[in-house]
Amino acid sequence: MSEPLLSVRGLNAWYGESHALHGVDLDVNTGETVTLVGRNGVGKTTTLRAIMGLIRKRTGSIHFDGKDLIALPLHKTARTGIGYVPEERGIFASLTVDENLILPPVVAKGGMSIEEIFSLFPNLKERRNSPGTKLSGGEQQMLAIARMLRTGDKMLLLDEPTEGLAPVIVQRIGELLAELKRRGMTVLLVEQNFHFASKIADRFYLMDHGKVVSHFPVEELESRMGELHEVLGV
Amino acid sequence: MIFGIPIQAFAGQLLVGLINGSFYAMLSLGLAIIFGLLRVINFAHGAQYMLGAFIAYLILAFGGIGYWPALIVAPVLVGLFGIVVERLALSRLYDVDPLYGLLFTFGLALVIEGVFRYYYGVSGNPYPVPPALTGAVNLGFMFLPIYRGWVVIASLIVCIAAWLLIEKTKFGSYLRAATENPKLVQAFGVNVPLLLTLTYGLGAALAGLAGVLAAPVYQVSPLMGSNLIIVVFAVVVIGGMGSILGAIVTGYMLGVAEGLTKVFYPEASNIVVFVIMAIVLLMRPAGLFGRDA
Question: Where in the numbering of this chain does the ABC transporter domain appear (chain A) (predicted)?
């Protein structure tokens, strides 16, 4: 097996004095969709933010595509080819849909053209001159993902893309992620919706108390349900 | 006659108001851009305006370099000065209470003004109107000094250009996005620290440009900035902190309001801006063009 695209070892992170991650280890291989699961507050979002460099107080090692991300300033992390779609979506109110879409700088060749993106998201094309936050929640989520598709990123960090959305939109996002996977995109996903995640994920990492407690491929999901229910408390 | 006032007096004060408003608009625009992105209340803005005027004065006195080149040279030098200030000092204060940025720029303004007072005293130094813009035109109801008309037009051009830069360009979209959420913009790969430096430089350069335009109208004096800056802060507050359009529109409006007050009730002309500020803050705390927090 070749080197993983993203390899995280012993990742610790702090919010001020509060120690949020206690040695997270995980690997994501090229082309895989990997899902982090766990209860609220166990450090899933924090893991994504620490990988991205949005949390600066962190130790351990994060290797992505042969580069050590710990040493990089925040704006250089994206330049290595990681795109980030935050939980709160991060659509800018003072920018139009078009401007939101082309805001993230292109970091490598191989991203989609605006035309390709609009063919995947016809709704966005119709509303390209509206302020970004006038879109519906589902459209804003589409926009948050769409704008990371033209940058040529090798990998996306997606934080709860289905949160608070209607079932028909969730299904649409599922189809989109399946399409991205067909195109070879690597994805690290945080998702509460098991049913949704089971259809697109290759592997799962289960987190509790700021670290990874187990990991398994999607095929073992059925047999692991007992363990999952115990840790997730559902 | 308008309301019992001779039309010449009325038009004359309206023009004075528009001229003052032009400077209010250009200065509050720079303050609004800087505050929006850096969250720094730039008390050095008046000193940077004064620096622009003094650079024009000094390069004319010692280098024979006239008004038109000064319109480029002075803003560039003041902008570079702003970039150095941001890199060396302001950039170290972003993570602490915004009061530190305010105190630092206030202290910087005192130092700059003190240095110029030491060498040039407080009496003004005249700066000649460029030959191409001397004289006046007869508008029928009044004589318009050409230079004053030019100041109003030039300030409009500057404000429109700045507005277009912010609203219609890629640089502007970075600036607007970073004003909303700087961390996320940086996580997208935009060099936000550099954007902050350039923005402060741009704001300072705008103040420097306003200073050159002001040199032939007002005297070039070390205190010319501090005389103006308090009113300009009131303009920013009335327009809505950080609102670009608000700063521009309010700048002209308040200049005119001041001018008209001089016609109808001269005693109140120095305080009318602050009365308006108090009323606006009571009715709309976020300012006329501000978004409610």
Answer: 6-234
